[in-house]
Write a structure and sequence with these properties.
By secondary structure, the protein is of the alpha+beta class. Helices cover 37% and strands 22% of the residues.
Length: 376
């Protein structure tokens, strides 16, 4: 087992508490203690400016009451390093409120961290709120990587990750902050309220919410327009993935995301999703309902001329998807559709009068299935 070893900073050590931070802490003082845990963020930030290699937890603190005539320090606290083999302890003392100079005394011995051990301070109080604001514009994984890049190599070697919360912690922070903006504690009633709120606005994307089985459909007038224009001459894709949303419990059915996608008219650009369906019901009836609901809105916007579109649809070969596409876009059963395709390719049906969309199975999925079959 390897250990990270380093000596403690030479005494005397000190840092200065910012006046605005101290005034905010004073506002939450009750008796001889600060309420909440924001004081731990302030003190640990100061200690880290002197000694960034240990991750400290705090045991106790005391604050001098306003107007007290005693000669006791304004503030004192004690802490210890969270690493199992590290003997380092710390004591912080603020003697004068006019300067807010915090004297730091380390004791116990030199730093000794197991190289396989990692520790992080909890993200609390104002630090949690600041992190939540960053997560409004960044993904948890992206924020984690940015935080890791800012940590110096020696701190990385020490195993201290106070400045880089894990992605799971960041996800929890992001999730808890989003739930605060809900109009209802339960997800589905909250989504239904959101539909009513967005109806008729430019952000009207959420179209349908199903309670049982659970499902959500999303598209907008803009994506309907993109679909109508692109599918007349180009390919439409229908795909499904189950790797985006995790199951609530081991017994609950997995959530799948079904998506209608068209190619971007700009070469080299990402495809454009025009409709999305999130559900735990993976049946032909469920997917057909999604496609027909989308097709209904297209026809409502552009009239019956949209019935014969798209020109070609590609899917992965799933029977559920093929049956649903056949019913929603070709207005016939899959067996009957395949029979019509057979008559067309054998020359028994004139191409001039054939006006059904072409259902095409994705070649990459065919090759993947063939490869798996050959390995058996």
């Amino acid at each position: 087992i390897n250990f990270f070893l380093c000596s403690l900073p030479r005494q005397p050590c000190f840092f200065f508490i910012e006046l605005k931070d101290w005034q905010e802490l004073r506002q939450h003082q009750k008796g001889r203690v600060f309420q909440g845990l924001q004081w731990t963020n302030v003190i640990s930030k100061g200690i880290k400016s002197i000694h960034p290699y240990c991750s400290f937890a705090f045991k106790r603190h005391r604050v001098k009451t306003l107007g007290s005539q005693t000669h006791a320090p304004i503030f004192t606290c004690e802490g210890y390093c969270c690493f199992e083999d590290c003997p380092v302890e710390v004591k912080v003392e603020v003697a004068d409120e006019s300067t807010l100079k915090a004297a730091v005394v380390f004791s116990g011995g030199d730093v000794c961290h197991n190289s396989k051990e990692l520790h992080r301070r909890p993200v609390r109080a104002a630090a949690r709120q600041a992190t939540a604001e960053l997560l409004e514009t960044k993904l948890p994984r992206s924020l984690y990587l940015e935080s890791m890049q800012k940590i110096t190599p020696k701190v990385i070697d020490s195993g201290c990750r106070d400045d880089a919360p894990t992605t799971n912690v960041l996800k929890n922070i992001s999730w808890s902050e989003r739930t605060k903006t809900r109009s209802h504690p339960d997800e589905l009633p909250s989504l239904k309220a959101l539909i009513d709120k967005q109806r008729g606005t430019d952000s009207d994307v959420l179209q349908k919410v199903m309670m049982h089985p659970k499902g959500v459909m999303l598209w907008s007038n803009k994506t309907l327009s993109v679909f109508y224009k692109r599918c007349k001459y180009d390919i439409v894709y229908l795909d499904a993935t189950g790797s985006v949303i995790k199951k609530n419990t081991a017994e609950s059915p997995p959530y799948y995301i079904y998506e209608l996608v068209v190619r971007n008219p700009s070469k080299g650009q990402s495809p454009l999703p025009v409709a999305t369906y999130v559900t735990c019901d993976h049946t032909t009836a469920s997917v057909t309902y999604f496609l027909q609901a989308f097709q209904t809105d297209v026809i409502r916007m552009y009239g019956n001329v949209a019935i014969k579109r798209p020109v070609m649809i590609i899917c992965d070969g799933s029977l559920v998807l093929m049956h649903s596409i056949s019913t929603a876009f070709c207005r016939t059963g899959l067996e009957d559709l395949l029979q019509k395709y057979f008559l067309l390719i054998t020359g028994q049906h004139p191409t001039e009068t054939f006006d059904l969309p072409i259902l095409h199975r994705c070649l990459s999925h065919i090759m993947k299935n063939a490869k798996a079959l050959c390995k058996k």
